[in-house]
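Bit of a strange request maybe. I'm writing a small parser for structure token strings and I need a real example to test against, not something I typed by hand. Could someone generate the tokens for this chain?
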Amino acid sequence: MTLLPARLLHARGKTTAAQHVAARHLDHTFEKLVACNLPLIAAAPLLDALRASPDPLALPDLARRLPLRLHRRGPLHFLRLFPRVFDLRAPLPLTLSLTPPAASLLAVASSPDAAARTLHRLLAMCPSRSIPLRAVFRVWRELALPDDFEDSVLARHPQLFRLGPNPAEPTTHLLHLVADPSNFSPAVDNNSRPDKNAFRLQFPPGFRLTKEYRKKVNDFQLLPYAGPYEAMDHKAVGSKRKVSKMARRKMEKRAVGIAHEFLSLTVEKMVEVEKFSQFRKCFGIDVNVRDVFLDHPGIFYLSAKGKRHTVFLREAYDRGKLAEPNDVSEARRKLVELMLLRRHGLGNANSNANMSSSANAEEGDDDLQELEV
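Reply from user aminoacidic:
Good idea to test on real output. This should exercise your parser:
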């Protein structure tokens, strides 16, 4: 694939969105990390359904409830590939449940108090101090919220949160911050650097830093901006009036600061771009978030593997692993390792169901690319 010159990465008007993504400098460490997570991402709806049920579920019922497009050879082939995670049992109709090791790893979540602090920070970044509840549901896994966070977190902290109707969407609710926002310190301030407005930069291996690009980066680092928790006039957010070039640059830097803080709140320091984009209006971001991630490769890395765009916070990773892992991230890493083992060392897995897979257990990494995620 022919890559565009680095200078075109900042000449946004001359490239299409697809060209802008294709022209990014690939970091194979993060690409490999995404590839390892593809089976877990594909199986996420199925895992949630199995966790919510105390009894094994009939496979035909699951197929009707969920879009089980898990593998090019069908969902049954996918389930047989991961016997350390899925327990497939006969007689017909086949029933499906989680194995005890997988169930224990999936049960790891943040404590209600930690989840309350995370939601408090999330709402504090919004000028209106409110977020659609549906948006929170979309990122509950990334924030490691408990399954019953409406009861265990929201209902038990009435001094912080309140649910109210959403005038824009009558069928949904808004989550409001009741208390005044605390004096939170952004994650970027925890790093020791001479300039408080600067971000830690960590460019991918082989990235060419031209003289022109270095100047742009230095100017951006020195540019003052409103922090993610600083109060803003939410009525002015999203206004259609023209802004100066300097004002546009400050808006971009504030968007970088908000994205940096949001990724710092996630347990694995990564999120799908689409999920983050739904908070764009809530956070008062007036620039294209995908362009923000692509234009700052020293702060973020955007991967397009698996038919989705995933963004990582670079400074949170060291050689493809989290620099400061937590209980939830460690549990998910172990679950990914279980899935990567597939059927190795188990012989004829699922023999208790009198089934043998029609495919070879020794499948390569290319199968990960066939997953319809």
